[in-house]
Structure formats: structure tokens, C-alpha cells
Amino acid sequence: MAYSQIRLKILPSVRCLFDKLVQVRVEGLTPHKQVQLRSRLVDDRGRVFKASALYKANETGQVDVCRAPSLGGSYTGVEPMGLFWAMAPEIPHSKLLKKNVLSPTLVEIEAMSAETGELLASETNERGYMTEGMKRIPVQEGRIRGVLFIPPGEGPFPGIVDLYIFGGRLTEPRASLLANKGFVVLALAYMGYEDLPKNPKKLDLEYFDEAVTYLRRQPEVKGPGIGIISISHSGGLALSMSSFLSGISATVCINGCNANTAIPLHYKDLIIPPLTPVLKNITFTDSGLLYVRNGLPDPSLEKNRASQFPIERASCHFLFAVSEDDHNWNSVLFANQAAATLRSHGKESFQVVTYPKAGHFLEVPYMPH
């Protein structure tokens, strides 16, 4: 096999946005010979993520990952972006960390001989977060801490508050990628970032009200209302904001809970207590991990009503995105209860979308699980 003839191509370009599909193609192989494709990235913490898949060249000596099935490895079958989403961390249970969205994530792709293990060809895909001309503005406005992303162009644009995970400091990839689609997005921190408390004793809804007001006042933001996107613990926050605050038109709640969890939520004179975990339902897995899926009680029980968010007060549209294989908590139950509450109050402006085999972190496209 003349290795100099072998080319690994990433199409349409080696540079793209992180959430864009690319075509990985290997040309110049011996017809019908097997080749192993490998992918690798190093995240901002220095953690290594890898995937591999076995392919067989066609009669013209080509492997097109968009059309050919993987015969084995990290995934099987036709998966155009399998080399990206199937990457797994070398240190188990690591979540990919991307702190700095000003630089791309580099994914190295290699084609190896399945027989000898020799490197045949390689290429690097630069997967960026910000389109040219986008503004990234750190926000320190009164108590508010976060980063504002403004897309290029005339505007004004719809505004979105992006709320991420409990204890998650500030996470920018989703916010920056959303801004590429024509939104002004405020990635809002609510703990453990800059001078915000690491372990707050309560959630102050008035802080989030200030953030909504700040975003709505930006000249690039088209009114009258803004949207919220949230995941996990911040899903509950988004539901409480929709219930009590004005100026919210749409709320996306990804694997959230319809009741308050973890710490009390305060708004003016109102306190919503968190659900009390059922400790006997928290167990250990065989590998020594804490299994918390059944740790929260049923929010619809009478004794837990005080913790429920009064979403029947909301006037926005809701999208509940839920993973049926969520092992963090029972997202499907919580979303269905929220939908039932809205329905019982004559509200139909909601949608529940379920993903049968997905886990708790429903991330941006092609993010390693």
C-alpha cells in the first residue's frame, strides 16, 4: 500500500463551528481493506477524550463515514459524527470542560492500518464556538455576573438567558453556539464564579430578575420578552423565573425538576423550601458510585406541595426536553407533572420531547457524552 496516496479529508472544511456536521473521508486505500479511524481531543483541564471505529474500504478504496457502517469500536453502524460524540474520557466520569470559547476545540482524526497499526493519514478538525464578528462581553452589572454574546449583523435579535448547572461556575459553549444562530445570549452565573458565593444558603430570585431586566434593556435585544434555556438544577430556576417574573416569552427546561431542590428559593417575602431527599433511596452502584436517581420524593404528594413551582402562573411557552435514561433524577416524571399542571389550568402552550436512550446531560450536538 502506497501510504503517500492515502488522504484523510474533513469536508467541507477543517474549520467549522462545534455544532456543525462534517464529512470524514479517507481516500487512496486498498479496496476492501479494513482501516481503523481514531479521534482524540484534549479539553481545557488537560483531560483526554478518545474514540475509535473499524471501517472497510469500498471498491474504489474509499471510506466515507457519512455512508459506511462502523464494524466495531466505540460505536457500530452508520454514524456520520460517531467519531465526535462517542469520544470517552480516559479518566472515567470526566465531563468535557471548555472554559475559553475564544479558541476552538481541536479534534485529531487518524486513519490506521487495521493489520499493522501503522499511521496512514491524519487531519485536525478545528471546532470553534464564535462566528466572525461576534462579540463576547464579560458582564459585571450591579450584582450580575456572566458573559454576553452578541451576534454580528444589524439586529435587534431575540434575547436568551442561558442558565447552566448547579455549582457549574460559568459555561459558555451553549451560549456562544446559540448566539451564532441569531440570538443575544447572556450566559448567567449564579454561584462559584468571580465574587459570587461558592455555596449559597439560598437562591435569590431577585438576582435573576435583575438579569432579565439587564438583558431586556440591551439595545441589541428585540422585545418585548426574552427566552430562558436551562438544564438540571437550573431547570427549576427557569420554571420559578417563568412563574414569578415578567418579560419571559419562552422557557426551555432540559431534565429539570418541577419543584425546588437543594436550597431554599427566596423571592421578596416568599420562600419555597427544597424537597427533602429520601435518603434510604440513595444507594451505591457496584462500581462505588452514588446512585441518586430515586433520591427525590414525588413533588405531587400533598406534603411536598410547598416545594412545587406555581407554573400555572406563567404566561410563556414551555419546551420540556427529557432523557428517559437520566440517572440523576426522574426527569420524565417531573416533566409530565409540569405538563399536567399546565393542562389542568387550561394552558396548552407547552411541548414535552423525550429522548429514549439519552442521559442527564443533553448537551449541544456532537459533544462527547
TrEMBL record:
Keywords from the UniProt entry: Fatty acid metabolism, Lipid metabolism
Molecular function, one GO term: fatty acyl-CoA hydrolase activity
Every BAAT/Acyl-CoA thioester hydrolase C-terminal domain range: 204-369
Catalytic residues in the record: S232, D326, H360
Coiled coil (UniProt feature): none
Domain of life: Eukaryota
Listed Pfam families: BAAT_C (PF08840), Bile_Hydr_Trans (PF04775)
InterPro entries: AB_hydrolase_fold, Acyl-CoA_thioEstase_long-chain, BAAT_C, Thio_Ohase/aa_AcTrfase, Thio_Ohase/BAAT_N
GO BP annotations listed: acyl-CoA metabolic process; fatty acid metabolic process
Domain Acyl-CoA thioester hydrolase/bile acid-CoA amino acid N-acetyltransferase: 19-141
PANTHER family reported for this sequence: ACYL-COENZYME A THIOESTERASE 6 (PTHR10824:SF17), ACYL-COENZYME A THIOESTERASE-RELATED (PTHR10824)
Protein family (similarity comment): Belongs to the C/M/P thioester hydrolase family.
Protein name, per record: Acyl-coenzyme A thioesterase 1-like
Gene transcribed to yield this protein: LOC117548666
